[in-house]
Amino acid sequence: MLAADRRRMILEAAAAHGSVRVIDLAAELGVSEMTIRRDLDRLDEAGELAKVHGGAVLPGARAGRGVEPRSAQKAVRDTAEKRAIAAAAAALVEDGMTAAVGAGTTTLELARLLRGRRVAVVTNSISIFHVLTDPDDAGADPTGAADVQLTGGQRTPSDALVGPVANAMLERVRCDLAFLGCHGIDPAAGFTSPNIGEAETNRRLIGSARSTVLLADHTKYGEIGAHLFARFADADALIVDDGLGVAAREALAAAVPLTVAPGGAP
Questions:
Q1: Is 0.90 topped by the overall pTM?
Q2: Minimal CA–CA distance to 181: which of 44, 257, 58, 85?
């Protein structure tokens, strides 16, 4: 089992139960407790879980207070749809290209498909960086992780690195394609984020690339975050899943080139 798949299963268990134990995960996944501890270290570093004695809990659980949902919670929602969108996006990437991949759970699925490909990746996501460079992924082609650049910056609850450090780095790179997720997509409001720093860094990701592709599952339609980062004119393509209704598809297709990824909806 690949380390990335193992960690996804750990996140799913944590989201379902609120916490996980090392001893239980080792037995269920058929690996050593040391391997599970390394997985939890990586997930803790990425802000997706919070390590505690003997296991891990969802971020914010230790403090007992509500927080903005992190990627750990979002990663287990609508996974089939996200994987379908990611597959359609990966088909746009040709060997030798440089892709800017923004933080998000759908873009994380795209990163898993780019692992081992002869492409260069610039990302502002710690989770995506780990997926593309993790040497623990058994059977992965080590040459596939040779050229991955992480922006640096301040981490947000959605696992994005943002702020002056991230923005300055992105101003100095040039990419063939930029792939971004979004918090909300609305025919009038455009593509939005609830985080002002993430919105600004998303704009820099768009500015770094010749073409921009937005990835959004059907649950994002009609949602509006506080901060606009792209209008429809800024996007060269939008990929959605087939759970999006016909009326919504028609409204979006009138504003941006639209691809509906098959196989997402049950």
A1: no
A2: 85
